[in-house]
tRNA N6-adenosine threonylcarbamoyltransferase (Pilimelia terevasa), 335 residues
Amino acid sequence: MPLILGIETSCDETGVGLVRDGVLLGDALASSVAEHARFGGVVPEIAARAHLEALTPMVDQALAAAGVRLRDVDAVAATAGPGLATAVQVGLAAGKAYAVALDVPLYGVHHLAGHAAVDVLEHGPLPPRCVALVVSGGHTSLLLLGDLARDPVVHLGDTVDDAAGEAFDKVARLLGLPYPGGPVIDRVARDGDPRAIAFPRPMTGPRDPAYGFSFSGLKTAVARWVEGHDGPPPVADVAASFQEAVADTLTRKAVAACREYAADTLLLVGGVAANSRVRGLAEERCAAAGVRLRVPAPRLCTDNGAMIAAVGDLLVRAGAAPAPLTLGARPSAVL
Ligand code: KG4
Ligand code: ZN
């Protein structure tokens, strides 16, 4: 069976993974998250430079972890988009260089398909049709997935403004909590009452797109509430109530999509899938709707190289045509 080298550089993680026949042999991850902390968000140029520095060491580390040699690699898969243009370009260029040097085929991978496909490494093959909710710092997308190696990824809906993770990060910032805000809000919210403040559920009106999302209004609602409150804000209650609004909106729409498209499986993936309330509510609502919920382990939920190798592995095993070396980065949301 072919050995696939996967490379992920769409945002601030430099990920390299080695997969053979649905099995993750080894991976390595470097993050420039600390370098972006003082800017409150990812700075594309800093991310790109960090990828450049980290890529070769991460390839070496992943090879060592997998106990294989570079010359054993049979195909290279690299994220082609969506993502930060300059960041994607670094990984894609490296992927091309490895493919040429090793004289093996190159595959350009849809980053969101990667977030879904990573679950194959943990829980086995995906059903012929499933819905994926990809919620991270960069994306909030509801996808309808068929055969990942043959069918295009269908976007049922995306956020029209901030991504869910971005909303977590921005709300954390206005509460004076550190970046990245998601894990901190998750932790702080444990001591709060999710019903303390009735924040809006954006994009859930009768005329709103069924599967669209919007989080910037929610963030503004939190900011207004904090401004209008005398004295220091009750951080735990604000965090818990905000988190409840996000979890409610995300899971309501995801389960509705499973019903409409007769998908018996919901994949919950991306950094925000690590959120305890999003997971808890998804479990509850999926159980009530007779939908199977699949959530990869937290370390595979965030950006990594294994997820890109997982798609490469599906493509190679399905006999898909490799990408030409002229393949360019596709930064926008739809590939
Ligand atoms: O998938 P990811 O590592 O990178 C991309 O953005 O593609 O996701 C990172 C995002 C950040 O916004 C972070 O705040 C959020 O995921 N996140 C969380 C949690 N852990 C990470 N958000 C809510 N609750 C969490 N436990
Ligand atoms: Zn991602």
